[in-house]
Amino acid sequence: MPLQNRVTPFGEIVDHPARGLFLGNRGCLCDEAGKLATRRWRLRAWITCQLSYKGWWRPVMQPGVWTELFFMDEATALAAGHRPCALCRRDAYNRYRHAWALAQGLASPPKAVEMDDVMHRERTRRDHSKVTYRADLATLPDGAMVVLPGTADRAGLVYRGTLRPWSPEGYGDGTAIEPLDVDVLTPACSVAVLAAGYAPELHASAER
């Protein structure tokens, strides 16, 4: 039986057998082994990590330590409100914060805590619901994710002039992007980072 540790572009944590490309961390979310508590984060630093690092291993979803979450790909993690880890994904982290500085017109790349404060405001409300905003689909950069038009609970990836429906197993066939107001799932700060040139690692199905 799959554990409840897969994250959707809406930021929800669900149980699903599909394997993901990335690991994530929001702090300790378990009070007992293998089972989520009601909380969905303990830290403002929501990060995206490699699945393996220096051969480290431990049983997942244990109380008293940070809880392992999993993402289908990096675009999914960005949509959920995560950023690259500065430890195990140092190169991606530096590319992300340099793109952040470029997008925001900063003289130097921001510190992690500065990005985390902005990201937290742009990904979740006080009632723990997800923050979205309206934008023209045709203006969004590759890697951004939106609520599929005509739905309330399905996500799609903007990629190479198409909108590709998301699922835990991968992306479906794309449809051509046209000007249309949509609800954007990826926080505005990360959309700006994508527009400034940051390229997330995507599931192979995005290339179909």
Q: Over all CA atoms, what is the radius of gyration?
A: 16 Å
The total beta strand count reads 15
Q: Describe the sheet with the most strands.
A: 6 strands, mixed
- What's the shape? globular
Structural class by SSE content: alpha+beta
Strand order of the largest sheet: 2-1-7-3-6-8
The residue-averaged pLDDT reads: 96
| Subunit organisation of the chains | single chain
Extract low-pLDDT stretches: none
Distance between the termini: 30 Å
Helix percentage range: 10-25%
Can you put this structure into words, describing what you see?
The protein has 208 residues and is an alpha+beta fold. It is 20% helix and 24% strand. It is built from four helices and 15 strands. The chain has a six-stranded mixed sheet with strand order 2-1-7-3-6-8. Strand 4 (30-32) and strand 5 (35-36) form a beta hairpin. Helix 2 (90-104) crosses helix 4. The radius of gyration is 16 Å and the shape is globular. The mean pLDDT is 96.
Keywords:
single chain, 208 residues, alpha+beta, six-stranded mixed sheet, five-stranded antiparallel sheet, 20% helix
Short description:
The chain has 208 residues and is an alpha+beta fold. 20% of the residues lie in helices and 24% in strands. Strands 2-1-7-3-6-8 form a six-stranded mixed β-sheet. Strands 10, 11, 12, 13 and 14 form a five-stranded antiparallel β-sheet that branches. A two-stranded antiparallel ribbon has the order 4-5.
